[in-house]
Write a structure and sequence with these properties.
Layout (H helix, E strand, L loop, with lengths): L5 H10 L3 H21 L7 H14 L10 H22 L10 H12 L6 H11 L1
């Protein structure tokens, strides 16, 4: 199904810096972007934050869109690439969130954090394992 012709007009107006055109472009493509985000969401990111990041990239790269494919396809590619980059980044810099710990792991970490004296070798080993 061909993409609506008004996308091209919105694109030209958005490129020229017109705020209303940018808002319309976001409204038109938001559901597509959020669907992609939900399918590729890194654990540590909020879907709204990632969607916002994607639209920032879309507007930064509007001049790179050459109309050889529908705008929605190009936006999809930007969205998928952004999600994949964030997932890669998460693997390089893993972040352990308290909510990701099971009850035993959280208790062990609590005990270690509350201790003022040196932890036993077993506790130190368990803590290192949690941290890696």
């Amino acid at each position: 199904m061909p993409e609506p012709i008004f996308d091209r007009a919105w694109l030209e107006r958005a490129k020229s810096g017109e705020d209303e055109a940018a808002r319309e472009l976001i409204r038109e493509h938001y559901s597509l972007v959020i669907k992609i985000v939900r399918g590729h969401l890194p654990r540590r990111m909020d879907e709204e934050d990632l969607a916002q990041m994607i639209f920032v990239k879309v507007f930064q790269k509007l001049d790179q869109y050459n109309e050889s494919a529908p705008l929605s396809h190009w936006i999809s590619r930007v969205a998928v690439n952004t999600c994949l980059n964030e997932l890669r980044s998460e693997k390089v810099r893993p972040e352990l969130r308290w909510a990701d710990l099971n009850e035993d792991e959280a208790s062990a970490l609590d005990r270690v954090l509350e201790q003022k004296e040196e932890a036993s070798a077993d506790e130190q080993g368990a803590t290192r394992e949690l941290a890696s």
